[in-house]
Hints:
Blueprint: E1 17-21, H1 22-36, H2 52-60, E2 65-68, H3 71-77, E3 84-87, H4 94-106, E4 111-116, H5 119-125, E5 133-138, H6 152-161, E6 167-172, H7 183-207, E7 214-217, E8 232-234, E9 258-268, E10 273-276, E11 293-295, E12 302-306, E13 311-314, E14 325-330, E15 343-346, E16 352-356
Parallel strand pairs: 1-15, 2-3, 3-4, 4-5, 5-6, 6-7, 7-8
Antiparallel strand pairs: 1-9, 9-10, 9-14, 10-13, 11-14, 12-13, 15-16
Amino acid sequence: MFNDYKINNVESFETPEHLIFEEKVLNNIESIISLVGGEDRLIPHAKTHKSKDTLNLLIENGLKKHKTSTLNELEILAECKPETLILAYPISSEVKAKRLEKIIKIFPETKFYTIISNTFHFDLVKDIVNLDGIYIDLDTGMNRTGISKENIPNLIDYISSNSYKKLKGIHAYDGQTYGIVSVEDRVINTQKTLKDIREVEKKIKEKLSVDDFEIIVGGSWSFHFYIEEKDIKLSPGTWIYWDISNIKQKELPFQIAGVVLGQVIDQNNSNDTVTIDIGAKAVSSDPPTENRLRLIDKPNAKLIFQNEEHGIIKLNGESLKLGDYVLAQPGHACTVTPKYNRAIKIDKEGNISGQITPHARDRV
């Protein structure tokens, strides 16, 4: 019915429903460890799954260091006692700095780090008790957060003047590679990023004494281009569930594990359309409309319009009728997770095997 997505008793589901296929998740875990050559190279980003259930599965498979974006993710995922948690989002207020300090105190078994890109961030975190260290967040071209390499000397001087001894290394997210299908173009982009990183590394080491210097770089569109740099840690996130945007990277072996089950709720024969119950509240809404979902086994069907609870599908020769169930691969896996208070796990036989709770779906 849905190609290699086997679901038994599909009519028992109340749609829309977020489904996670266990075997595809396990494939993705095994694939990424094999690809990079070992568990220690990986610091996956938890923003995609936001779940203690999934984090525990990753820890069981040897992935013990993780990144997060929000303090809520950091606090909740710390309950799983990973070896390391990195808050890959700058602290911007005293109230957040105090909360970070409180979290660190509650979970002494985990090492905690955060990122900075200016003196404002540094002043907020430098005195946090038991914070294991900071990474300088380097902007390599995404122009979202981070410091440019040209401004690094002043920041290093400021850190040095404060006699700060917990600088851990460099963090860089090269999100500018997102959507670049050409492998050659992404290679060129990541080579420039690597050059910038090495220049900054040299400046830091010339000015400061840093023990066990560490570099973390690479999102889901780029991490595999740094594999040969053995001293670099890799930090993709979307790989765990994957999606139709990322699957354009034909060189990667990951499978789309997280999907949305929906149903045809109305039809308009004169317009060659049907309406499904997968609206903007049920699937990723950040890509352009036509890229928000793809119906499995209906390759010509296209999403042409979306409201909160409705999705209008142009059939383009495909066949769907009232009451039919549809399975949608999302355009962006990370923004599907927080839309549901739990996802249903499906085993390799097509049966419900449990659920995955996105425990950290709220920001606070």
